[in-house]
Amino acid sequence: MKSKPEILSPAGDTESFDTALSFGADAVYLAGRSYGMRTASKNFSLEELSVACKKAHKLNKKVYLTCNTLPRNADIPDMPDFLAAAAECGTDAFIIADLGVFKMAERYAPSVERHISTQGGVINYESACAWYELGAKRVVLARETRLDEIAEMRSKIPADMDIECFVHGAMCVSFSGRCLISSFMTGRDANRGDCAQPCRWKYHLFEENREGQFFPVEQDGSGTYLYNSRDLCMIEHIPELVQAGVSSLKIEGRAKSYYYTAVTTNAYRKAVDEYFEHIGEPDYRVSPWIVEELEKISHRAYSTGFYFGSEPGQETMDGGYIRRYNAAAVCVEGSNDDMVSVVTQRNKFLVGDTLDVLPPDGYSFEVECLSLVNGDGEQVPSAPHPMERLYMKTDKPIPKGSVIRKINQ
To answer: Rounded CA gap, 204 and 216, in Å?
Structure first.
């Protein structure tokens, strides 16, 4: 019988980290204040990393630290201290793209596993075996790898080497993130965590002898997006991923919100657990409610990427996000006997609104907001102030840690 794969969730800050643990992640990947590929995220100080590792280990979960930028000479002198300090914090693995950093991690943090980042471009079993011989425990495969290639790789690499694959989130138009567009157009280096995402911009065409007269290559009324890839979503293909031998299902999104982390982690946790309850059933299909959950986050049109080969997965599209729901609040104290819970506001909602609740352990359900009371004990008709603490009475109890959302009108 195949082993249950790890659910690996992203965290760009402490709130997202705590959310990932609450909603079922087996491991969380994050960055320190240096050497990570997402400079736009808050990321973690060494003190915060230490606290995060203690929280995770108490729950028998793991923390992986991204060290996957391509460092220049000036970055190298501080690297030994950074790696050693991260190891002291309790980091379970480093995610590394650069061979020099890989060897430095062996030297200065020998107790920490080393995982090869998707930026390493591993797409065949010989490359995976070479990294294994150098000491790597895991390869994060290039997103361009097909499922049949993964299955062949699994059969030809050491049994104790893990295969990690992205299963959800934004995809880069370049090969495994090795992109130069941002550097050329803005001076911001995508390979050092500072991508300006010019692949998401609108573009026009104009003829060289008619300078200043552009010709819109209309895709729709929103403009033309020549490089804009769809988002990846493999929620309906957990059986194929498991059978191919994938060890870890990775969710993209360290620059995204706690709400995104909650919904995606919950969906893939439930999908994997459900599949293993029905493993061996030839007609198994993931429950529709799990698929629907991933429609409740902001996303581009979904695709299965390169997994099945026939669909490129990098089709251009209208560039806009699909936003059916907005996060409304987080429940910080569960409902009492009077159905009153304490929530912190994230987007405006009103008394009388029907809200959708996603608890940390369970299924989403709807409640009606019957009343709101602010910190001064005053009845208020709405929650308009970001992060305001409110007492909310509903018609059903809300568990602590739930994310509360509202459908867009």
So the answer is: 5
